[in-house]
Structures are given as C-alpha cells and as structure tokens.
Amino acid sequence: MDSLDSPGEQVSVHAPAGTIIGRRTGRVRRFLGIPYAAAPIGARRFAPPVPRGRLPEPFDASRHGATAQRVPLYATTTIPEPSIPGDDVLNLGIVAPAADDDMPLPVLVWIHGGGFLAGSPASPWYDGRAFARDGVVCVTVGYRLGVDGFAPLDDVLPNLGLRDLLLALDWVQENIAAFGGDPDRVTVAGQSAGGAAVLALLSSPAGSGRFHRAVSLSGGIFDVGADAARDVLERLGHRLGVPPTRAGFGSRTVEQIQQGVISLRNEQGDDDPLVLVPCVGDDILPVPIADGLTVHGHDIPVLLGATGDEFDGGARPDVTAAARAAGTRVTDTLFRSACARTAAARRQAIAGTWLYSFEWPSPVFGGAAHCIDIPFFFDVLDAPGVPQALGPNPPADLATLMHADLVGFVRGQEPAWGRATGALGDPAREYGRPGAALAADTTGVYDPVVPAMSQAAEPC
C-alpha cells in the first residue's frame, strides 16, 4: 500500500484556490497543509475565519501543515497526534486517487477528535490512502481548539471552531473538483469530538447545503450555555495572570493557554475545561444540538455508532455485561445514548439513520476501547501506533469489511441493515463481537436508552 513516508513524484493541481503542488506515490496523490483560511493571528485571533483567497504563488503541499494543538493533553495518546508548529493552523489535507478518467468521485471530509481541546489532523491513522485506493477523495481538516476555538467570551463570537469547519466545507465545495472530487457528494465524518462536531453541524441551520451525508464515530451530544464555562475561564485567567477576556487571553500564546488548561485538568482531577465545547445560543447553534437534530439535516443520511466499551474497558466480562445492561457506564451515558437520541430526533427524517457497534476487544485495553475502531474504518492497520493499541495481529478481514461498509455509505449506497428510529430494539451492525461473525446485523444493541450526561469524556 502507498505510504506517506514515500517521497513520490511531484504533481500539481490548478484549482480556484491556486496552483497546489503535491506528491504522487503509486496511484495515490497527496496535497497536504493547504490553507483554507487566513492565519488566526493578531487581529484575526478570536475572530471568525476569513477565506484565504487565491494563493499568489504555487503552494508546496508536500507536508502536513501547522496544527492547532501545540501542547498534547497527555504524554501518551491512543492515536498518534503530532503537534506541528506554525501560524497557518486552518489548513486541510487531500488524499486522492491518481485517476486517469474525468469521473468525479465522492468525498469524505474527516474531523479529528481530542475533546475539542487537542488532537491532530496529521495523525497517520487518518491517512486516506485506502479511501483513495477505493475511489474516494479524503480530506482532513484542522480547526481551532480549546479557548481559541470554543471559549464563550463576552467579546468573542461563539463557536469559532465550528465556523472554521464550515469555512473548510465551503473551500471543499469550491475547489474539490480540481482534485477529482464531486462537490455534490460530500460526506462529513469524524470521531469523538470530531463525531460530536458532525452532530453539531448536522443540527445547525448553517450546515445546510455544505455536505450531503454524515458519519459520527463515538460522537456524543456535547453542548453548553455560555455561563457554563465562566468559572473555568476565570480560574484559567487567574492562573495565567490575565482577565478572562479576548484581550486578556490574546496577550498569552496558544501554548501558554493550552498548558494552563492542562494544569487545571491536573489539579485535583479537574475536568472542568471540557466545558470548552460547542456553545448554544448563536447563529450556528441557536438551540441545543438535540433539539436542532429534530429540525435540521433531515435530508442527510446518517451513519453513527460507538465502541462497545469506550472508556470502560478492562473489567471482567460479566461485570461489563451487567453494567451495560444497566446503562450505567460512561460508554452508555455519553456515547451509546447519543446514538439512540440522534436516531429518535431524526425519526421523521426523509433520509435514513443507521447504527453500528464496534465490539472487537483489543488485547491491549481489554475491551473495545475508545479510538481503536479508527484503523479498521480507515483500513490502515499498518500505520504507526497501531500495534501499541491493537496488539500484534489485529484482524485484517475485519478492517476490510468495515472499510468497505464506510466506502459504500460515502458512495451513496444504503447500508444493508435496517434503519434506526431511536426505539428499543433498533437494528444495528455489530462488528467483531467475539464468537460471532465479523459483522452481524443485530437488534437491541443500544438498549436501554439512558439520558446523556452533561459533560464531555476524556479525549483520545
């Protein structure tokens, strides 16, 4: 399989955004670090994103661009998440087939996870080479994180991170045809916070017309009111020696702010900074996400699901089974319930909603843990960091099957299993359950339906 490590030959594309020079290895072309917006620095920091405009010179897209993550939340993460310095954090990467025909191809736009505080679009787990192999153009997007992206400051327009993603989707609409993609067949997808962002965009009136299908992997329904973060922002400002305002936080670097958030989190197990999530009450999210899902996005087919254990792995099988039946685990209250709630909110939708559950237990984590389904859906079991998370011999046939299901959905096919309505006994596609077929269409996987908690979970 074509590797990102292979330098390849130079290849150029002439798009409305300008001439972009990438690399081709085998039948895969990569164009990385393409800025879709002006760098959010100076007066543009804590301001809505501004389109970059046409690039005046040929742009070298041979390497990943700068990441909004400057300081990782953890010394070790399940997903390899490199931090890359630079100002142009609002960039995207494109992995496309080196096709010889003019047939426009479906497009997958991927939003990385990380609790809205961290994460990196440059992860090797998000390399779209298998999608390109199968005739899909894969786009990975960077967006502002933490305070810079989601702090509801009095003098700052809310949801800057979501506004970044919407502008990136506009860039895709305007430019993706030059890379072989079809702007009328765009699927937006993401995992964890990225999956939650997908649900936020799906519920937003601003999302209309920007994408045509949606996939949410382990994406909870996470939103807050502006008042919810005030105490955290005041404590963060005190730690940094600044008032919790645009001017105050703007006087500190992104690195300093992210380090301050980490310090708060480490202080007596403080998880309050995870209120830095999409904020309700503006033009992007005028109502809570769960309410918006009952109104918007009903013409968009949706595929969503969760891993069997998310953050609850490691317990004895009998203990796990009892807790799952009671619906008391973090997995159920934060992630699995969001799937049932989304299906219920879309009960009257014209387009369908389909559920899946990833059940393969990693020998490393002792369960179907958060994030470990990504290498299967991307079919990149040879990527760096996979053995450390999945063990030495993850089932390649499971990756082949799961990736094929996702590719089929992105291409516009209706999943082979039944639609979900949020009712008890909803059908779901179950992947990798020990003792069962690699994929089994089951009912009741998401029973019981439990209320979602009002706080976010640990990022990858």
Automatic annotation (TrEMBL):
UniProt keyword Hydrolase, yes or no: yes
SUPFAM superfamilies found in the cross-reference section: alpha/beta-Hydrolases (SSF53474)
Keywords, comma-separated and alphabetical: Hydrolase
PROSITE patterns membership: CARBOXYLESTERASE_B_1 (PS00122)
Occurrences of domain Carboxylesterase type B (ranges): 11-313
GO terms of molecular function: hydrolase activity
Entry annotated with the keyword Hydrolase: yes
Gene3D superfamilies, per the entry: alpha/beta hydrolase (3.40.50.1820)
E.C. code: 3.1.1.-
Origin: domain of life: Bacteria
Similarity field: Belongs to the type-B carboxylesterase/lipase family.
PANTHER family given in the database record: CARBOXYLIC ESTER HYDROLASE
Protein name: Carboxylic ester hydrolase
Gene source species: Nonomuraea polychroma
